[in-house]
């Protein structure tokens, strides 16, 4: 044991934990190791990489904004870049690098892609191809991928419940677009809505007990 | 087994407020007299996990409240590599909100606070160590002091004791909003992490000293802490004001309960400091407040208010994505601003005689938060008290002053050690 003359405490460590005074050589004080040696460098690198990604993304948008203003200020194409950078950053941090639930990743992709497409379409003049065709089929694809994932895990599907419910509700968004006059083509919207209803019906028929149990738990007050 | 549990009344708050700067993960550990053998620890955990169903759960998202479901995956013991109380990444921990770690002679249990409080965690740790020793072939008996892994979980261990002990569900207005307490400032570690400094002292002698000062061990340490925090403030900005220590109070002592879920209240002990306050004055003030604020009627009022609030249809009917940010705002603006630091004393943990010789001491680590960047945890076993400061800031003057002054005042031997996070050589 080492004694710190400043703090008047004993310690088995080579430096006083309170005032950091060196009390003994590391060799001489090889007694009990209380904690692991932390790899702080790796943590620092990880933090710096994510900060760097955000910085580079913001920098790219700023440079494009400057070029945009200098070259063709009457057409702000920089918004295309900004929304694409946003989508890439979200995809990187959530879909690729995080260990989130696969259901969450699918749902996040559908939502962020929908936003990306809506912005691009809106920037091009008015909302047309996105709300008429691409968004309904994107939602159908999302529901389909989620359903396939559920079939793969079978009994363990309850973790997908809230994501599936969210996606099924999203299935009606194209119909809302059509009813409100934003979309002009009916059949893709009807297809998305019908697909959501079909999956919901299949769920109730084949997994009624689990479905009802989960419903009770998810909505308990 | 398809068991599910509502999150208890206190647990809901931790769900709402936890984030990168507030992991809501606390740790209880015991240091054994021999190096830990992970194989036996895993064998023990496989058995003990079944005995504590409310701790071995996963959290599911609900619209109005999240809830907990039984988790079928194996809870795996891990060698300690990170700093204490790192946020629990549910996806990397088989969706568990609890982790069991080992390092050299230490077995640690880190738990997300929504599952249980210190009392529940200690019961789990005791049973785990009991089973670990059995797996190693040691002759140990529960002696009525450890929950036997062979017994089935009892319904009363899984109950929400807040609801059981609430005597009125009428919504009552909270008392006067507590005043703002002094808050410790400092430079956050980069990269973020938690530094812990433990001080081990003879519990019996310290207790006797506290009694001679006319207070309890908690009362004495709280008073000392208030004094050193104020002194530190004076050297920093020459101002006086309120220093408040939040003391979690286990309700099991006053309200009969064997629940393994959260069942505690918090008493804020605040002293209006000025340059003329001596330690004796602080002790008198703190002791008086402790008696008043841990009185059964006061605690009962707190339980009733707490339960009535969460029974309110207005609150229950609001979806979590609205409710959680509001709860977080309330926690930060009302709860966190009213305290300087939290000091949690888990008391004296009694072990069976047959187990005592295998255990040296225990540690309690309480996660710091942004507004409370230094917190303190106390745990006693085998007459050894370990005082642990956990901090997320580089400044350690308060901790240094605390141990130095404790040594000067009591004359007791203090053995100090640290995990050295963020310390430059």
Describe the structure.
The complex is a heterodimer of chains A (about 220) and B (about 425). Chain A is an all-alpha fold and about 220 residues long. Chain A has 3 domains: about 1-35, no CATH class; about 40-100, no CATH class; about 100-220, no CATH class. Chain A is built from 8 helices and 2 strands. In chain A, strands 1-2 form a two-stranded antiparallel ribbon. With about 425 residues, chain B is α+β, with helices and mostly antiparallel strands. Chain B folds into 2 domains: about 5-145, Chloramphenicol acetyltransferase-like domain (Chloramphenicol Acetyltransferase, 2-Layer Sandwich), CATH 3.30.559; about 195-420, 2-Layer Sandwich (Chloramphenicol Acetyltransferase). In chain B, a hairpin with a 2-residue loop joins strand 6 (about 100-105) and strand 7. In chain B, helix 5 (about 205-210) crosses helix 6. The mean pLDDT of chain B is about 90. The interface of A and B includes residues 8, 12, 13, 15 and 101 of A.
Map the helices and strands.
The complex is a heterodimer of chains A (221) and B (425).
Chain A: E1 2-3, E2 10-11, H1 40-71, H2 78-96, H3 102-123, H4 129-153, H5 161-170, H6 173-179, H7 186-206, H8 208-218
Antiparallel strand pairs in A: 1-2
Chain B: E1 4-6, H1 11-17, E2 25-32, H2 38-51, E3 57-60, E4 67-70, E5 78-79, E6 98-103, E7 106-112, H3 118-135, H4 161-165, E8 195-202, H5 203-212, H6 217-237, E9 241-250, E10 264-273, H7 279-293, H8 296-311, H9 313-316, H10 320-335, E11 341-349, H11 353-356, E12 359-365, E13 374-381, E14 384-391, H12 397-410, E15 415-418
Helix pairs in contact in B: 1-10, 2-3, 5-6, 6-7, 6-12
